[in-house]
Amino acid sequence: MISNAPVLVCISLLLNALAVSSDNSSDSLLLGCGLENGGKDVDGRQWSSDSKYLTGGNTVASKSSHQDPSLLSEVPYMTARVFTSEASYRFPVQPDKRYWLRLHFYPSVYGSFNPADSYFEVTANGITLLSNFSAFITCQALSQAYLDREYSLAPLNSDSLTLTFKPSDKHNGAFAFVNGIQLIPMPEVFGSSAVMVGNQDQTLDTTTSTFQTMFRLNVGGQYIPPNQDSDLSRTWYDDTPYLYGAASGITSHVEKNVTINYQSMPKYIAPLDVYSTSRSMGSDNNVNMGFNLTWIFQIDPNFMYLTRLHFCDYVETKVNQIVFNIFINNQTAQREADVVAWSGGQGMTTYKDYVIYVGDSPGDENLWLALHPDPETKPEYYDAMLNGVEIFKMNDTILAGPNPQPSQMLLEHEQEKKSFDNKKKTSNTVVIGGAAGGAAGFALVTAICIAAFQRKNRDPGSYTQTSSWLPLYGNSHSSGSKSTISGKSCASNNISAMAQGLCRYFSLQEIKHATKNFDESNVIGVGGFGKVYKGVIDNGFKVAIKRSNPQSEQGVNEFQTEIEMLSKLRHKHLVSLIGFCEEDDEMCLVYDYMARGTLREHLYKGNKPTDTLSWKRRLEICIGAARGLHYLHTGAKYTIIHRDVKTTNILCDENWVAKVSDFGLSKTGPDMNNAGHVSTVVKGSFGYLDPEYFRRQQLTEKSDVYSFGVVLFEALCARPVLNPNLPKEQVSLADWALLCKRKGTLEDIIDPNLKGKINPESLKKFADTAEKCLSDHGLDRPSMNDLCWNLEFALNLQENNGGSRHASREESEFEEVSLGDDENKNLSTANEQEDSSENSSAIFSQIANPKGR
Ligand SMILES: *[C@@H]1O[C@H](CO)[C@@H](O)[C@H](O)[C@H]1NC(C)=O
Ligand SMILES: *[C@@H]1O[C@H](CO)[C@@H](O)[C@H](O)[C@H]1NC(C)=O
Ligand SMILES: *[C@@H]1O[C@H](CO)[C@@H](O)[C@H](O)[C@H]1NC(C)=O
Ligand SMILES: *[C@@H]1O[C@H](CO)[C@@H](O)[C@H](O)[C@H]1NC(C)=O
Ligand SMILES: *[C@@H]1O[C@H](CO)[C@@H](O)[C@H](O)[C@H]1NC(C)=O
Ligand SMILES: *[C@@H]1O[C@H](CO)[C@@H](O)[C@H](O)[C@H]1NC(C)=O
Ligand SMILES: *[C@@H]1O[C@H](CO)[C@@H](O)[C@H](O)[C@H]1NC(C)=O
Ligand SMILES: *[C@@H]1O[C@H](CO)[C@@H](O)[C@H](O)[C@H]1NC(C)=O
Ligand SMILES: *[C@@H]1O[C@H](CO)[C@@H](O)[C@H](O)[C@H]1NC(C)=O
Known about the structure:
By secondary structure, the chain is α+β, with helices and mostly antiparallel strands. Among the domains are: 199-395, Galactose-binding lectin (Jelly Rolls); 483-593, Phosphorylase Kinase, domain 1; 599-817, Transferase(Phosphotransferase), domain 1, CATH 1.10.510.10. It is built from 20 helices and 36 strands. Strand 31 and strand 32 (541-548) form a beta hairpin. The chain starts with 10 loop residues before the first helix and ends in a 17-residue tail after the last helix. 51% of the residues are buried. The structure holds 2-acetamido-2-deoxy-beta-D-glucopyranose (9 copies). One 2-acetamido-2-deoxy-beta-D-glucopyranose (NAG) binds next to helix 10.
C-alpha cells in the first residue's frame, strides 16, 4: 500500500484556490439533535433542529436527566437523537468541497436508554467513521463527560451526504445516539503533498483522503478555543500532557518587536497563537545532544497517519543557526530541518506534512514524535523547535478504531465513588467532591492512556506500585544522568488524569523563574497551606503561585483536593487554577492573578482613604461571591461545601469581579469513604464557624451560608470578625451585629465611610438577609440562590432610590478607587521589567532561560 502511493495531482492546487475564495458560513449546518426548537450554545452559536434532515428509521428525540458540571453549555449536549434501528440523515453539500463533520456525544441516561447499552456504527456516504462504538466506554476511559469527534471529509462528488447511524447487532438492545452534528464547508487544508516517512522520495496526495483529527496541539502554548481559531473553529490543546520523559525543553513566546508573517500561506492553516509560541530544547549544546525532545500519542494501530508540524522561528534570523532531525516512530522523517531556510526568515510561518503507516505489532499503539539536533551541517546552535502539531488518521473507506480500554485504576476509583455515593444516600449527608466530567476532546487519548501504557510496559501487573501514574511529570529537569523521582511523587498518583489534562504542568524551574526563586518580595499572602507568591509566566502573564509547606501531610491532601476540584470547576466567580508543579518535594498551585487582592484588605486592612469601597461595589462583590458559592453548592455533580468562606477567600480581579478561592479544605468523595461520614475534625476559621457544625459536627452547605452571613456583616461594618481587644460582647462580629440588629442600633456600627451613603431600604434588605444567614439552625438559613436574589434586590434599591445626586457621588468614589488602580499598575509594570531582566534567570540552570541566547 505504501509502495504504490499515488503521485501528487495538480487538482489539489486548483481546489486550494477555490477554497480560499469560498464564503465561510452560508451553507454550514449546526444541528442540535433532538433539539426541536433549536437553541444557542455558550458561544452564542445557533443550533437548529435536526429533524428535517432525517430520512426514515426509528428515532426518538430525548433529553438527558442529568447535566454534568463540565458541560460548558446545555446545547447541544442535553438533548439527543436516539436511534433504535438504522436511520440516516441526508444533508445537501457542494460536490467539490471538503467538509468538517463534527459529532458530539454526551453518554448520559436518556429516558429509558442507558448509555452503557449503546454500541453503534456511523457511516458517511459509505465511509465507516465509527464501528461498535461506545461513547460511554470511550468517555469512561478518558475520564470525561462528553466527547467530540472531528472528521474532514474529502469532496464527495455528490450533492448530498448520507450520514447513517446503525445500532450494533452484536449487543442485545443496542441503540445509537448523537447529540450534535456540525457540517461545515472548509478550504482544502490538505492540499499539499505529504512526505512518506521511510520512503523519502515519495509523496502522497492527500486531497482525496478522509481524515479523523486525533490530536491538535499548540506546542509551548495554551488551549485555543474554537472561537479563537483562524476561521475553522478548531480546538487546539496544550502539548504538555503528551511530552515524554523529563526532558520537556523550554517554551517561549514571540517578542513584541517581531511580527509573525504568513506570507502567501493562508491564515486558516493555523491561528497566530500557534505560531507565537514554541518549545525548544534549551541553550546548552551538550545537554541538547544528549536527549530527544519527544511527544508520544496513543493511536489506533493499522492506519496511516498524517502528522502536520507547524513551524515559525521568531528568534533566529539566519539559515543554519538551528538544524535538526525529525523522527516519527523512530524513523527519520526529516533530515536537516532548518526552519529559517524553509520559511524564508525570522517570524515567517511554515508547515510540513509527514505520512506514516502504523502497523499492528507490539508498541504500535503509539506514535512517537522526536526532535534531535543535527550536527552534520555544523549549525550555530544544537537545538530543535516546534510550534504546533496536528495528527490525523487517514483512510478512504474506514476510520473506525476499537473502543479504548478504561484503566484498572480508573475503574477502581469509579467503584469507590459509587460505594461512597451509596453511603451518602443512606447517611443523608450532602458532600462533596466533583469527580465528573471533563474537557472536550476528539482525541482518543489523554495523558492517562499514555500513563497506563507506560505502566503496562515498565511495571507489569502492579497496580499498587503506581509511580508511573504520572510519568510525564514526575521527574526533575536534570541533564541526562540523574533524574530523580521525588519521594512524595506518589501524591500525584491520586490526581486524576482528567485533572491533569485540564490544567497545565509547570516544572520547578518555571515556577522558580516566575517567582524569582521564591523571592520574599513576591509574597502576596500566607495561608494554612503555605505562602502565596506573585509570579510572571510566559513572558508577562501574571499568576499567583501557592507553595506548599513540604513537611505537612495535610498539605499533600489539600494540594490534591484543590487540583481535583478546581480543575473541574470553571465559573466566572471562582478563581481558576492554571496548573500545578510537583517536583523535588515542592508542591505549587498556579492560579490566575487577582490584581486587587482580597476583599478584606479593601475593607479594613489597608485603610487607605482611596481604598474605600462604595456600598454599590461591596454589594456587587458579595453578589459575585454568592454566585460562585451557589455554583459550588448546586452546579457540580455533587454538592461542594467550601468550608472556609471568609473575606480573605474572596478575591477581586482588576475589574472588581469577585472570585471565590481556596478549596483546600473541601473534601472529595473517596476520602469520605474511609471516614464513613463527613470529617469529624472541625475545620474552618474562627469567627466564621457555623455553630451548628461546631455542635453537631455535621457539615451542610448551610455552614457556608452562615460564614457568608458573617462576610456580609464584615462588608457592612469593615471590622475584623474577631477582635479580642473589644469589650466582651463586641469581640465576635457575628454576635455583636446580630445584637445591634435586634436592638435597632445597627446604623451605629456600620463602616463610618458608608454612613449616609447607603439607601435605608437597601441597608434593611441587606441586614435582614445577613441576619437570616446567621440563624442558629441551618434549615432557617436561606439558600445561596435566595441570597443572590436578596442581595441583588438590595443593589436595586440602592441604585434606583438613591436620587441622581447620590448616584453622582457614587461615581466620583469610583474614580478615587481607580486612582488606586493606576498606582497598582505602576507597581506591576516595575515588577515586570525586573522579571524580564536577563540576569535573574542565570541563577537557574541553562534550561530555565527561555530565550536561550
Ligand atoms: C465570513 O467572511 C466574511 C468576509 O470574508 C467576514 O466578514 C465574516 O465575518 C465571516 N463570517 C464568519 C462567521 O466567519
Ligand atoms: C527584539 O528585541 C530583542 C531584545 O528585546 C533583540 O535582541 C532583538 O534583536 C530584537 N529583534 C528585532 C527584529 O528587532
Ligand atoms: C521507539 O523507540 C523507543 C525507545 O527509544 C521505544 O520504546 C519505542 O517502542 C519505539 N517505537 C517504535 C514504534 O518502534
Ligand atoms: C532520538 O530518537 C532517535 C529515533 O528514535 C534515536 O535513534 C536516537 O537514538 C534518539 N537519541 C537520543 C539521544 O535519545
Ligand atoms: C484503509 O483501511 C483498511 C483497513 O484498515 C485497509 O485495508 C486499507 O488498505 C486502507 N486504505 C488506505 C488507502 O489506507
Ligand atoms: C465492541 O466493543 C466492546 C467494548 O470495547 C468489546 O468488548 C467487544 O468485543 C466489541 N465487539 C466487537 C464485535 O468488536
Ligand atoms: C493515594 O490513594 C491511595 C488509595 O487510592 C492511598 O492509599 C494513598 O495513601 C494516597 N496517597 C496519597 C499521597 O494521598
Ligand atoms: C510611577 O512610576 C513613575 C515613573 O516610572 C514614578 O515616578 C512614580 O513615583 C510611580 N508612582 C508610584 C505611585 O509608584
Ligand atoms: C544581576 O542584577 C543585579 C542588579 O540588577 C546585579 O547587582 C547583579 O550583579 C547581576 N548579576 C549577574 C550575574 O549579572
